């Protein structure tokens, strides 16, 4: 007997949820707000967002900014978001879509197009431990002490408001092609608008569960002998918190309770619009010559002639405040990234140099500017680009990536809160 679509989805750790979106007449431009962990050091961004939203229904009122999760009045902030969610529900601001998925088509200031699939994943198919062998795995280590405040938010929320980006290893683009086939056959456009604050443009197309067979077949083809189908690219701590809350509640809930699932956006790691950026390092308050000598010895570095070509996977660019730039080639062990050996060396150095400190910097130009203004006491380290073709294999063979290895896209390209669902 052949399996039903629901049974096939269950084997893949997927659920097609009943998605909620604003009903007709509600401004999507004011409703959709960028993820809570962005612009945490730029209050002006959030002040402008508040001005743009005004009194309109908005996801801005439905989350606690990440920078506030350690506040003394966290419980009061959580209560306010819960009240705002309940008010939306009682006032029928949101409309219910039939169970299915949403194909998201987004452009930004940096890329012409990026496709994603909004669906739900089974939290019981996700294990965030570093040696995880589950269907759904993290890409970076999970910091357990960051979970309790996020769990407190999840426990109180009647709505699931996702900013998680899930990655698939799909060089043939099977999933997105199948989703577009389903959209052409039975899809319905449910939104099409400009995102506020330079977030680009976004369109969404809904396909009901019974019309989604091509997508289900595509996911089945992507599941290989490694047992890994999805890797969490963004929002791992939010997803881990959702999992832990479900584990607390499952003994007293039906096995198909909505809290068992977490809504996410799935993106293909090979999508040209999905740009991976290395996160560089700057060491402050150091004697640069002393640190360079230490790192060369610890890493077994060979200085190479500087070229205009991009760094290879086993090369670093070292910058000091005297304007000296060197390219180092590092002999990395098989299966390991250069950032792992570098991070271990920097951590070791910091143990014996308490006056020094390390910062993680997005973008080469900010590194160069910081080092140039450092009055001889800063060392910048430029890291190579991430190899997408080896990304999933690394997770299978070795495990999670070291902390602060990569970021996905620029800040304004992060996911905006838009779709939601009842939990």
Task: Characterise this structure.
With 423 residues, the protein is α+β, with helices and mostly antiparallel strands. The protein has 12 helices and 22 strands. The strands form 5 sheets. Strands 1, 5, 6, 7, 9, 10, 11, 12 and 13 form a 9-stranded mixed β-sheet that branches. Strands 14, 15, 16, 17, 18, 19 and 20 form a 7-stranded antiparallel β-sheet that branches. A two-stranded antiparallel sheet has the order 2-4. Helix 5 (147-156) packs across helix 8 (236-249). The longest helix is centred in the first third of the chain and has 17 residues, at 74-90. The model has no long low-confidence stretch (mean pLDDT 93).
Write the layout of secondary structure elements.
Elements: H1 5-11, E1 14-15, E2 20-22, H2 28-31, E3 33-34, H3 43-53, H4 74-90, E4 94-96, E5 100-107, E6 114-122, E7 136-138, H5 147-156, E8 159-160, E9 165-168, H6 174-186, E10 188-195, E11 200-208, H7 213-222, E12 230-234, H8 236-249, E13 261-268, E14 276-284, H9 288-299, E15 302-304, E16 315-320, E17 325-329, H10 338-352, E18 357-362, H11 364-372, E19 378-382, H12 391-397, E20 406-408, E21 416-417, E22 421-422
Parallel strand pairs: 7-12, 9-13
Antiparallel strand pairs: 1-6, 2-4, 3-21, 5-6, 5-11, 6-13, 8-22, 9-12, 10-11, 14-18, 14-19, 14-20, 15-17, 16-17, 16-19
Helix pairs in contact: 4-5, 5-8, 6-7, 9-10
Low-confidence sequence ranges: none
What kind of sheet is the major sheet? 9 strands, mixed
Number of self-contained structural domains:
2
Q: Helix amount, in percent?
A: 25-40%
The averaged pLDDT comes out at 93
Count of separate DSSP helical elements: 12
Radius of gyration: 23 Å
The total of beta strands comes to 22
Shape: globular
- SS content category: alpha+beta
Beginning-to-end CA distance, first to last residue: 33 Å
Residues in β-strands, percent: 25-35%
């Amino acid at each position: 007997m052949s399996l039903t679509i629901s049974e096939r989805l269950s084997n893949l750790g997927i659920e097609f949820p009943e998605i909620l979106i604003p009903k007709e007449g509600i401004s999507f431009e004011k409703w959709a707000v960028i993820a809570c962990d962005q612009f945490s050091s730029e209050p002006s961004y959030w002040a402008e967002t508040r001005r743009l939203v005004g009194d309109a229904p908005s996801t801005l009122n439905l989350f606690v900014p990440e920078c506030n999760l350690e506040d003394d009045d966290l419980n009061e902030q959580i209560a306010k978001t819960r009240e705002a969610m309940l008010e939306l529900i009682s006032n029928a601001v949101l409309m219910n879509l039939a169970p299915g998925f949403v194909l998201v088509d987004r452009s930004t200031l940096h890329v012409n197009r990026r496709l994603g699939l909004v669906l739900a994943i089974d939290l019981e198919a996700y294990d965030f431990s570093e040696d995880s062998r589950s269907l759904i795995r993290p890409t970076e280590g999970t910091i357990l002490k960051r979970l309790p405040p996020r769990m407190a938010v999840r426990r109180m929320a009647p709505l699931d408001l996702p900013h998680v980006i899930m990655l698939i290893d799909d060089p043939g683009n099977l999933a997105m092609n199948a989703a577009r086939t389903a959209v052409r056959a039975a899809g319905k456009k449910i939104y099409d608008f400009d995102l506020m604050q330079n977030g680009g443009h976004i369109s969404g197309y809904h396909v009901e569960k019974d019309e989604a067979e091509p997508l289900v077949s595509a996911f089945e083809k992507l599941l290989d002998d490694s047992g890994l189908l999805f890797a969490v690219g963004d929002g791992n701590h939010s997803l881990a918190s959702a999992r832990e809350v479900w584990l607390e509640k499952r003994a007293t809930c039906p096995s198909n309770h909505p809290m068992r699932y977490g809504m996410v956006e799935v993106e293909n790691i090979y999508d040209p619009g999905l740009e991976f950026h290395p996160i560089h390092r700057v060491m402050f308050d150091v004697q640069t010559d002393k640190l360079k000598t230490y790192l060369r010895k610890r890493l077994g570095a060979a200085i190479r002639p500087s070229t205009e070509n991009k760094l290879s996977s086993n090369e670093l660019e070292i910058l000091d405040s005297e304007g000296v730039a060197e390219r180092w080639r590092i002999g990395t062990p098989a299966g390991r990234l250069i950032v792992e050996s570098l991070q271990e060396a920097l951590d070791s150095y910091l143990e014996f140099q308490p006056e020094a400190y390390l910062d993680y910097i997005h973008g080469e130009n900010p590194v160069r500017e910081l080092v140039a203004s450092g009055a001889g006491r800063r060392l910048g380290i430029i890291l190579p680009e991430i190899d997408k073709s080896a990304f999933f294999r690394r997770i299978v063979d070795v495990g999670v990536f070291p902390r602060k290895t990569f970021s996905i896209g620029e800040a304004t390209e992060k996911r905006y809160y838009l779709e939601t669902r009842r939990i």
